[in-house]
Amino acid sequence: MRILPLLILPILLFPSCSRTEQPSDGLAGASYSLAAPKSLEERLSYSFGYILAASAEREYGESIKLDYVVRGAMDYAEGIQQMSHSEMNQSLIEFQQMQAASQAAMDEESAARNAEEAAAFLEANSKRSTVHETETGLQYEVVESGNGTLAKYAENVEVDYQLTLLNGSIADSSYERGRSSTFSLSSVIPGFEEGIRLMREGDTYRFWIPPELGYGEYGAGSIEPNSLLIFDVHLIRVLN
Fold it and tell me: Which CATH class is domain 115-239?
């Protein structure tokens, strides 16, 4: 039976590490009875062990006990196995389940907070004279007007855009990448599609997309659940 992988070790990049603590008493102290590594094999082995411990601590934080990392390595070297492979697998599964439960609780908390903040912002923003609101709840503002083809029936469009979150952080930007982006409107979030279909070539709009027209209660990548999305969009071309 194969043990699930615990770590993916960095091969080319040495981990940044500035530990100044003294080694703890007990099992880890046993390794310090060895002389400093000199031969290539000794230096390679020491580097591997150091990277393994640093990676484990960085990945698992206080959940990892370095004394037992050392003990496991020493037991393997001596042909001793104090846990079966299935018990090791079970330990990894339990840890992953604990992490998943913790993340779910954090997501639920952030989703409630973000939904409340989004609703408060949209209510205040709707009172601004330059802001328009559609029946779905999408809010938009015309920043600059063009006179090109209307995107109402477009299938694909070329745009420059920037996505900003309510806290001011930039989540995505074609401007930062230095090149425009082409989208199929059937593949984007509902609020973005609805907003684009209001525009003409040459227009620049700002969209405020409520969570239910964006990434909703699940979020996406670094975008938390129920986040309000603020898009600044310049429609370059309608592509059909």
Answer: alpha beta
